[in-house]
Amino acid sequence: MSMPRLGNAVWCSLLCLATACGRTRDEAPVSPGVAGGANGPSDASVPVLGQHVLALINEQVQLVHFDDPSSPITMTVPDSQGATSVAFTNDGTGLAYAVGAVQGPWQVRTASTLDGSTFGAWWSIPSGTSPTLIWVQNETLIARRSAPESSFLLRVGDGSVTDIGAIFGLSIATDQSALIALFERNLLFVSASATEWSPAISGEWLARLSADGRALAVFGREELPAFDLPIPTTRVQWSPPMPPSCVSTPPQPCPGPPKYTLSDVEWRSSDSRIAMEFRAYVNDATHMALVFMKPGSTERVSAPTAIFPAIGRNWGVWSNGDWFMLENPDEPTNDSWWIRSVGANNESARAKGPWGFAQRALSSADEKHLFVLSYARSAERSSLEVVALPVSNSSVPTTLFSTPERIDGLWPEPRGSRVLIGTSAQVGQSDPPYSLATPDALSQTLPNGLRDVQWTPSGGSFVGILRGSVVYIDSTAIYQPFTLGRGSYVLPNHW
User: Fold this and answer.
1) Phi, psi at residue 15, to the nearest 5°?
2) Which domain holds residue 211?
3) 129 lies in the same domain as 18
4) Can you give the pTM of this predicted structure?
5) Which pLDDT belongs to residue 425?
6) In this structure, is residue 29 part of a structural domain?
7) What is the rounded CA–CA span in Å between residue 437 and residue 133?
8) Does residue 458 belong to any structural domain of this protein?
9) How far apart are CA 140 and CA 274, in angstroms?
10) pLDDT at 6 over 80
11) How far apart are CA 483 and CA 473, in angstroms?
12) What is the mean pLDDT of the chain?
């Protein structure tokens, strides 16, 4: 496949689109007014819509406004019959949805979240599986399909559709201002105004956007090419550590060197340090080590010797640049794990945990607590431990939640200190139970039968599916769910 190289697209907002900018068929645009009339409310009896909104997908797309969850306001989006995929713009003012036909092309349309009215433009993409829709700002959509099917780039400004191949490995900025994806040996960069392909990249490599979408880093074992992309780019060539010296003593040969990989990268902003996690694999054992580096044009990094056993993500970086890491013992059945916290000036503190293996660590969104998922093999129990921040040498983890079942997921509350816990379903249960853990309080179990649970964008409440209905649950009254509709649901990133 030849790689497309596009010029700058026309800048155009959804507001422009609503007034007929970039229409791809001859039809009158629908003005994005308030429910009750094309240009605004027809009378004072029209309800005032609030900021709490989600999309339901059943036979069609419905927008549900529920500032008062006991009296939700539901509007059906026109021409959404058969929709299978929905995505909100980052600011929540609009959405896109994909409508498919049997063995025919898919149509991707856009609508206002204010009243559900459709905008004038739409795109047609070839037949295939249902695409996942991803916004880049309010000007560009990625209609993504899994390989080997092609994905497509859709521009709001000029209504164009571009085949971008069987992409994978997507990374998107927190504010959806930029996106990167991989295609074979090439890197695709997409922003509101540009779509560019990199030259071919050899060997094993990885690419990451900074979380603010203002810079790019590409990591590789081999020498990296120069990149002419419209974004500051750091090239990092890394190498594994030198193997330890060994003199072979027959019949025991020297062990082979461990296999090293760059397994994860965290980069909070374009002007902050880049955190790199290396993992070493020997037989059935996995060990990890961290490296921190400042972004620049070209860097060379030698991975340190990985010494701490690891399973899941057991480290992180706080907003002020301080970082934390779990240190697991080689024999977790009769030894404790430790939490290490390191400040920007390299001052560190270590707090001792219980016996067992620390599998994962994550900070609360307000950065006041650190949660650690631990497993005690001797007791065959998983537990969630919490430590108040900042960590000191005298800090003692407190057990918030303990279960003989496997803990499958941890989801921190947006802007808050709590965490939602998902565990594996027990024998005889069709759906796994969820629990809410709060520092300095007993954990609470959410209603039985609840599934597909998510925090709302502002925190403090949940949305999930209970006995076939989409429900809203205030975390202060978890056994009083409010029904919002039926089907599946999609929440915006922000309210």
Assistant:
1) -65, -40
2) 167-241+258-306
3) yes
4) 0.83
5) 67
6) yes
7) 33
8) no
9) 28
10) no
11) 9
12) 86
DSSP β-bridge partners for residue 207: 218
Q: Are residues 171 and 160 in the same domain?
A: no
Please report which confidence band the pLDDT of residue 332 belongs to, taking 50, 70 and 90 as the band edges: confident
Whether 347 and 300 share a structural domain: no
Q: Domain count of the chain?
A: 3
Q: Is residue 150 part of a domain?
A: yes
Sign of the dihedral defined by the CA atoms of residues 165, 122, 35, 137, in that order: positive
Q: Please give the pLDDT value at position 101.
A: 72
Shared domain for 153 and 274, answered yes or no, is no
Q: Look at residues 55, 32, 21, 26 and name the one whose alpha carbon lies nearest to residue 155.
A: 21
Find the CATH number of the domain harbouring 320: 2.120.10.30
Mean pLDDT throughout 129-135? 95
| 42-86 pLDDT tens trace | 333 444 566 899 999 998 999 999 999 999 999 999 999 999 999
In the block, residue with structure tokens 């999309």: 55
Residue 234 has pLDDT above 90, yes or no: yes
Q: Summarize the confidence of residues 297-317 as an average pLDDT.
A: 92
Is the pLDDT reported for residue 279 higher than 50? Answer: yes
Residue 468 lies in a domain: no
Contact 217, 265 (CB under 8 A): yes
| C-beta separation of 451 from 414 below 8 A | no
Chain centroid, CA 459 distance in Å = 16
Consecutive H or E run containing 50: none
Percent share of the chain, pLDDT over 90: 69
Handedness of CA 354, 400, 425, 488 (dihedral sign): negative
Q: Which two tokens stand for residue 13?
A: 């907002």
How would you list the strands of the sheet with 308-309, edge to edge? 259-266, 274-282, 285-293, 308-309
384 and 437 in contact (C-beta within 8 Å)? yes
Structural Rg of the chain based on CA atoms: 25
- Asked whether 277 and 290 are in contact (CB, 8 A), the reply is yes
Same-domain pairing of 55 and 154: yes
Strand, helix or coil for residue 25? coil
For position 13, what pLDDT does the model report?
35
Residues 155 and 183 reside in one and the same domain = no
